[in-house]
Structures are given as C-alpha cells and as structure tokens.
Amino acid sequence: MTKRLLSLLLAVLMVCSLCACGKRAETPEATPSPEPEQVIWPTTYCLGAKPTSLDPAQYLSSGDATYLVNLYSGLVGYRLNGAGAAELTPDLCESLPGAQMDDKGLPYYEFHLRDGLKWSDGSALTAEDFIYSWNRVLSMPDVDERYLLDCIDGYDRGKLNLTASEDGRTLKVTLAFSEPNFLKILANPVFFPVQKAAVDTGADWSLNAETLITSGAFKVTHLSDTEMLLAKNEQYWDAGNVTAEVLRFDFTDDPSEALDGFLLGRYALADSLPSEQLLMLREEHADAYHTATKPGVYSLCFNLNDPALAEFTEEERVQIRTALGLLIDRDYICEAIAKAGQLPAASYVPSGITDADGSDFASHNGTKADGSGYYSTDAANYEDNCKQAIKLLKAAAKSSGKFTISDSGRCKNFPALSYLTSDSTGHVDIANYLRELYFDYGITLNISTVDMTTFLAEREKGDYSIIRHSWTADYDDPLLFLMLWSTSSNSIGLGWGKHAQYDGYTANIGGEERSGLTWMESYDGLLYSIQSAADPRERSRMTHELETLLMSTGAVCPLYFYTDVYLCSDELEGMYLGPNGAKYFRGVTTHEGNQAFLELQTETSPNP
Fold it and tell me: Do the Cβ atoms of 455 and 420 come closer than 8 Å?
C-alpha cells in the first residue's frame, strides 16, 4: 500500500514540475520530494477488488453497485428522510408519477425530467438517453438484471415502448402489465442512463477516466489497477447538496490487506474482510464493526418428488422434512462455518423487506404474525428443536412402518438421501456439516459436489433429495422471494410431477377459506390474488399467508440471511446505505485534507 501511495505522490509531483515550467525548454531544477506523511491525502475507502466494469448494465456485486449509485443517477434514487431511513425519491425527474391507462388498457408513466440536466462533460442529458440506454440493456443477452425490464411493453418484441417529447423533457414508459413496484424497480442501476457517445468509444469505455461520462454526484478523475479518484460532478443537478468534494478508493482482492489498511488507519472504510477474523473483529473492534441486512437468504430445498421418500405419505414427508430442518443448528452454521456475519433465518423472507404498511415484513411473520418466525433460531432453544424433530420422526416411523427410531433419536433403516451442491468452499463446508449431523441420527446423506455449470443443469433435472439454494432480491418486495415457488417457476416439485396432483392444501382465495386444493390452486391462486389486489392491507395479509403456506410444507428450509459486514471509522460521517446494499457517499463530510488534495490533483492533472 505504501508503495502505491508513494507512486501516486511521485506522479503528482512530476506533473507539478512540468506545469511550473510553462513553455520553457530548460530542464527545471530538481525539487526535493516530501516525505509521504507530509502529503495531504483524501479519506480512502476499500470495497475490495477493482470492478470489472463501471457500466450500470454489467454490475455484479454490492461493491459495484456502490460505485454506480455514486457515479450515476436514474429517474429515481434513495435519500435519507427525516427519520434517517433511505427513502425512494425523484432524482433526474421532477416528481414521482402515478400510473395512468392508455386507450389500449395498458398502464403508463410520464416522467418529467428536471430542467437543464447535463452529463459530467457538460452535454445535455435528455429523455432520448433513457430510451437508448434501456434498449441497449435489452440487446445485451449477458446482462443479469435484464429481466427487470420485462414489465415494460415491447420487452418480448425486442424494442421497448418508450417515447420522448420533442423538447427531451418528458419520457413516457408504457408497461405490459400493472406493476405496483415499478418505481422501486427503476432504482436498480440497470436503469441508469449511459451516454451513447461514451459507449461508442470502445469496449473499455467504463474503465477509462477520459471516456467514462457520468450523470450522478461524482465523476472519475483517475482510474488505475490499484486505485480510483472521484471528484464532485459540478454538472449534477443537485451538486449544491453534495458535501463530499473528493473520494478515493483503493482496490485489493486480498481481504487481509483491506483489514490491515483499516487497522493501520489508511482506510476509513473496509468492505472486504477475511471471514475467519470476523468474530475477533466483532469482539475487539465493536465500535467500528457494522452489520447491515441484505435482501438475501440461503436455504435448503427438498425435492417433493424425491424417489427416496416415495413410499411415504405426504403428511409423513412433511414431518420428515420439518424434522430434518429443526435438527440444523443455524447459529452454529453462521458462527463456525459461514463466518461472514450472516444471521440465522427463522423465515424465508428476510428482514429489511418492506410490508404494505411501510413496516418491516419480517416483523409480522410466523403463524402468530408476531415476527417470531416459524421456529426458534436462538441457540438456547436448539435442544428443544431437536426434541421436536425426534417427536416428528417417531410419528413418521410409527405411521409408515418404514423405519424405526430409538428414544435417543437414532434412526434405523431410514432411506439414504442425496444432496446436491456447487463446489465453492462455503457450500461444501455446509454440506459436510449436514452429512455429519444426520449421520449422528442414523441418516445417510450422500453429497454430490459439482461445478456451477453442472449444478445449474442438475438442479433443473430434479435428481436429488436436497439442494442448496441462494437468492437475493433486486428490489424491495417480498414477492420476489415468494414468486420463486409458484408452479411455473419452482424446480423442487411443488407444482409439478406427482406432487402436482396432491390436493391437501388450504388457502383463503377470494375471501373464502378453501381446502382440498392442489399447489397450483392454493399457492398460485393466492399469488394471483395478491398481484391483482388493490387494498394494501389485504395484499399484505395474503402475502404473509403465502409465506406461511410455503413454510408449512417443510420443502424450503432457510438457514441464514445474508448481511453486509464492514469496518467504518468515526471519521466517516454522512454515509448511508440503500436497500440494495449500496453505500452512498454524497453526504460524506469533506475534511480540509480532502479539499486540499482535490485542489492539488485538479491543478496538476493534464485533464482537469
């Protein structure tokens, strides 16, 4: 790190010397180099490795999203409200519009852009830039978040139904169907506009400070393999409220180096940390240790059509699946295996997802709707969970006659189960824990570890008893988690195969309690009612019922919720987090050293 700082220092001093000579051809006298500690450096942050792209269409992580929300702006964005929470607000548009209906019965939104919008190079930013940018995303098959555009009319035809007014101030967006979360969806970086002239400069346009033109609070003034400097974008419409004048980011793919940089005082924030040291950091650096929830969950999923359990009734299989879930020590997995600050999961929808009334969705989960979840994840209650699991296994053993179980909880003649996982270390460690855990209860778990490509292919075939599953939402809506298990989208057999004919489900459909329903009739029926509901309270009630119905099957077994763990010094004031885990720096307090460095860097830069 010291070598990198010294290299940048020498580069700055060299440019200063060249600027001082003007047009004279004489070689200037050598100027003594100051010691590194005499140099004024801006506050430095470390989010991890250098991003592979700063193109909003190509981001891969919350670290990438952090760079993008500070460099770009979209129609909407997140800002702190009076209560200190991130709130969706207009950004490049003047206000948040409501949906209207056209003469074909399609919903549409009209966004009126702020007057005088400009790119960081001073050129005009208009509604046509959004049309170009969104259709560009549609034309890129490798964009992970492209599916977010499918609610816009024309997605299936290869050209979005977007129109711009002649003066470039109004953008009309016609949807293919009603999407109550459309404004939230627009906050995703994939909807940020990019300048066509910048994109046309070449494939690496987004990683070159000279060709990366931005629309947000900051612009890039220096970008290399080891560091990046951002300066306030004076062309940004709200530049007057951007308090940070300059930001410096160091890149490293070594979490230990990021940690050392923070502990030595080089970094005000370190966002990529060695997992094996998180427990120590939490205990010894509690003031700097921060954990933020992320909208993601890690689960086990049981194949509803698993041949290994084919001779059991559906009630017995629910008992077996629920028991196997209760035997898992989620607290142990988080503390001893995952070790990245994850939180034990007592439900499928994680904390941080908003309910219809604006409260946290998880605060109303569970069969009692009191936020207690569907089982206890408290370490003190783990023994009780195991007792309940053994009770369920004994009930299945007695009614089926297929296996026996001793008073101590050890099974005999229980069918062997298969477990499918991808081959990264963390997934394999969890699989090995489960194999050892179930072995202690007389249950054999055969693990199949494959590469990610094979894993995805085998997952679709359904040739497993249990599979690991990870999911992170792209915007704030509980349905993004619950829609995964509808008949048309799930891959664990809830709505297909032999289980599709099982009619033992009960649900409140259209205000009527109905029993004897298949998964399609119950779960899909509830989902349809939710999507067409106009009353937010009724929508919320049905959404919680949907999660409760899912959890009653025992088919989806959440283990933990993802979190964002980072170290942050007291020096860093004014940073806030958005729902997608991105960190916003526009409100960071600028210290005198940062301003002095900015002036030095600007004065000596060949491209100020």
Answer: yes
What is the CB neighbour count within 10 angstroms for residue 245? 20
Q: Are 476 and 184 in contact (CB under 8 A)?
A: yes
Nearest to 258 by CA among 56, 46, 55, 568: 46
What count of other Cβ atoms lies within 10 Å of the Cβ of residue 23? 4
Least confident span in 18-32, 195-209, 270-284? 18-32
Cα–Cα dist 561/343, whole Å: 5
Contact indicator for 111, 134 with CB cutoff of 8 Å: no
Torsion angle of C-alpha atoms 82, 83, 84, 85, degrees rounded to 10: -110
Please, which residues have CB within 8 angstroms of residue 356's CB and are 6 or more apart in sequence? 536, 537, 539, 540, 543
pLDDT digits (tens, 9 = 90+) for 113-169: 999 999 999 999 999 999 999 999 999 988 888 989 999 999 999 999 999 999 999
* pLDDT computed for residue 590 by the predictor: 56
The per-residue b/e assignment along 392-417, b for 16 or more CB within 10 angstroms, e otherwise, is bbbbbbeebeebebeeebbbeebbeb
Selection from 340, 309, 562 nearest residue 429 by Cα: 340
Which of 438, 476, 506 lies closest to 300 in space, CA to CA? 438
Q: How far is CA 533 from CA 105, 206, 448, 528, in A?
A: 18, 42, 43, 9
Give every CB contact of residue 509 below 8 A, 6+ residues apart in sequence.
517, 521, 522, 525, 526, 529
The model's confidence at residue 189, banded by pLDDT at 50, 70 and 90, is: very high
The DSSP line for 149-170 is: GGGBTTGGGTS--EEE-TTS-E
First to last CA, the chain: 26
Count of helices and strands (H, E) across the chain: 17, 23
Which one, of 28, 32, 10, lies nearest residue 19 by Cα?
A: 28
Cβ atoms within 10 Å, residue 13:
17
Regarding predicted confidence, which is higher, 565 or 590? 565
Other C-beta atoms closer than 10 Å to the C-beta of 139 total 12
- CA angle, 331 then 337 then 342, to 5°: 55
User: Rounded distance, CA 272 to CA 16, Å?
Assistant: 34
Contact indicator for 243, 596 with CB cutoff of 8 Å? no
Report how far residue 192's alpha carbon sits from residue 32's, in angstroms, rounded to the nearest whole number.
46
Whole-number pLDDT of residue 456: 84
β-partners of residue 565 are 291
Tokens of 540: 């919320």
**What is the rounded CA–CA span in Å between residue 94 and residue 117?**
11
Name beta bridge partners: 171.
111, 164
Residue 388: strand pairing partners: none
For the stretch 340-381, pLDDT in tens is 889 999 999 998 888 888 788 999 999 999 999 999 999 999
> pTM of the entire structure?
0.79
The whole-angstrom separation of Cα 214 and Cα 548 is 45
Report angle CA 585, 586, 590 to the nearest 5 degrees: 85
